Amino acid sequence: MSDDTVRIVREEILSDHFLPLKNVTYMQRRRDGELQVQSHEIYDNADGAAVLLYNRAHRSVVLTRQFRLGARLGGHDGFLLEAAAGMLDGADPAERALAEAREETGYAIDAVQPALQLYVSPGATTERLHLFVAEYERDRKCGDGGGKREEGEDIDVVELDFDDALAMITTGDIVDAKTVLLLLHLERTVLGRHGEAS
């Protein structure tokens, strides 16, 4: 696509309570050559990082459980099992993933391995998510985790058998998109299914 296919005409901030909600008007040249003007509301979200902790020897993963208002409003009870995650706030994605692992799970991790980069919901938000995996050791727990109380976080730390976690995708007990993708990435690249070579 050429640069002149889409041109931003106007941006209007509708709300800036937590993250800016904008009404963006843009002009797009359609494939048939016709110009059309569209207007959409979009959240100008900060980018984020997430990390799924795994232990190769025990075939386990560490997830968090916390309340998510959007899931509640969408018909779920709102308490989601997720990989540790947070907004970048100007930090390097890998550094943020390391920090979130410590804050949310209480595990000290030396390094993360890149898995994926993706746009979360590009029709409604600008957010890009950097996904990582990292191996943890049970004897390297350096705190309780749980997140930052001053930021309103109230996070449970949940260690699961890897194959049980995979099964929870099918049963609908794990419905967070980034976590599903990271579990499938681990299955494909590191752990495989039980009894399979990885």
TrEMBL record:
One Pfam family from the record: NUDIX
Signal sequence coordinates: none
Cofactors that this protein relies on: Mg(2+)
Classification via SUPFAM superfamilies: Nudix
Domain of life: Bacteria
InterPro entries in UniProt: NDP_pyrophosphatase (IPR004385), NUDIX_hydrolase-like_dom_sf (IPR015797), NUDIX_hydrolase_dom (IPR000086)
Catalytic activity: GDP-alpha-D-mannose + H2O = alpha-D-mannose 1-phosphate + GMP + 2 H(+)
Domain Nudix hydrolase: 44-182
Keywords, ordered alphabetically: Hydrolase
Family: Belongs to the Nudix hydrolase family. NudK subfamily.
Subunit organization: Homodimer.
This protein's name: GDP-mannose pyrophosphatase
